[in-house]
Amino acid sequence: MPTSSTSPREREILPQLSNATIVRWFKIVAIAEAISWALLLTGMYFKYLATDRTDVLVSIFGALHGGIFVLFVALTLLVWRRLRWSFGTLALALVSAVPPFFTIPFEMWASRTGRLDPTRR
C-alpha cells in the first residue's frame, strides 16, 4: 500500500519500464501495425477480387491487425503520459492508426521533432 511519501512515479502501473524501452516498443508496434494493414489488404484482395476467392486470410490477418491496433493504442496512451505529449499529438497518433500505413509517417515525424525522445519530460 503506497504511503504519502511515495512519489507519483513509484505509483505508476509500469514503473519498471524505462521511457527508452517504451519508445522502442512504440516504434516496433507502429511498423507492425502498418505491416498488419498490408496483410489485411492482401487478405481482402483474396476475399473479394482473386479468381480463387477465400476469406480465411481476412479472418487470420484481421485478428492479427486488430490485436496490433489495440496494442498500438495502448502504447500511444502510455507514451502520451510518459513523454507528456500534447492532446494534439495524442490525437494525431491515434488517428494515424486508422488509414493504412500512416503509423510509419507519424513515427518518423514524432522522432524527427523530438516527441519520441526518451529523455523528454
From TrEMBL:
It holds the Pfam family DUF3817. GO terms for cellular component: plasma membrane. Residues 24-112 form the DUF3817 domain. The keyword ATP-binding does not apply. InterPro entries: DUF3817_TM. It is a multi-pass membrane protein. Keywords: Cell membrane, Membrane, Transmembrane, Transmembrane helix. The chain crosses the membrane at residues 25-46, 58-79, 85-106. It comes from the Bacteria. It is found in: Cell membrane. The keyword Glycosyltransferase does not apply. NCBIfam families: integ_memb_HG (TIGR03954). This is DUF3817 domain-containing protein. It comes from Epidermidibacterium keratini.
